[in-house]
C-alpha cells in the first residue's frame, strides 16, 4: 500500500510541476470537448482466474490547458470525466483447452461481469510537432480515479449446476462476490496523434493503458483474494475546441 501511495504522489507532483514550471514560451490555451472509444479490461486476481478480455465502451468530456512550449515540447494538463464499462470475462476451459460443457444446459459455460464507473484521469500531456495547424505526436501519464456506479452479471448456467469437475481452473469465489471497494485508483499512460485545424479544433487518436493500484474485493488476510485489480486497454478518439488561445 505504501508503494501505491508513493506512486500516485510522484505522478501528481510531476503533473503539478509541468503545470507551474513556466520556464519556456508562455501559453494560455484552454480547450474543451468530448471523447469516446472502446475499452478491453480484465482483473488481476490472486489466486488466478483464467480470463479473456471484457469489452465495453467509454466516453465523456475532455479538458486541456496548455501552459508552455519548452524548446520543441508542448506542455499541458489533460483531464477527462468519463463513463466506462469495465469488468472481466472468464475463459472456462478444461485441462486440454476445450470449452467446459454444462450438463444441465448442454452449452459451453460462459461467465462475465460488467462493472460501470465514472472515471477521472488527470494527465501530464507532452506533445511534439505542429502546434496550431497540422499533426503532432503526444505522450501522457498520470493518476486515474474511478467511482463505482453499478454492476451486472451474464452467465448461461446456474451456480448450483456449474461443471466444476471439468474446469482446469476451479477458482469460483469471484462469481458470487459483489464489488466491495467502490473507489478505484491507479496509473494510466497513453500514446497518440493529434491533428489541429485553425478555427475548427483538435482531433486526437490515442491508445492508453491503465493499471489499477486498488482492488475491487477485500484483500486482507481473512479475504479470499489477495489482489483483484483492473487492467484496461483503451482506444479512443477525442475532439477539442479552443476557448482561449495565446496570440502568436
Shape: elongated
Mean pLDDT: 91
Strand sequence of the main sheet, in spatial order? 1-3-4-5-6-7-8-9
- Could you name the ranges where pLDDT drops below 50 across 5 or more consecutive residues? 17-22
The oligomeric status of these chains comes to single chain
Helix percent band: under 10%
Strand content: over 45%
Number of strands: 9
Distance between the terminal alpha carbons, to the nearest Å?
Answer: 47 Å
User: How do the helices and strands follow one another from N- to C-terminus?
Assistant: HEEEEEEEEE
Count of helical stretches:
1
Radius of gyration: 21 Å
Q: Give the helix/strand class.
A: mainly beta
Major sheet characteristics: 8 strands, antiparallel, barrel
Describe this structure in words.
- With 248 residues, this protein is mainly β.
- The chain has an 8-stranded antiparallel barrel with strand order 1-3-4-5-6-7-8-9.
- The termini are far apart.
- Helix content is 8%, strand content 58%.
Question: Which key terms come to mind for this protein?
Answer:
elongated; mainly beta
In short:
This protein has 248 residues and is mainly β. It has one helix at 2-20, and strands spanning 25-46, 51-52, 54-70, 73-90, 111-129, 134-155, 183-197, 201-212, 227-244. The protein contains 1 helix and 9 strands.
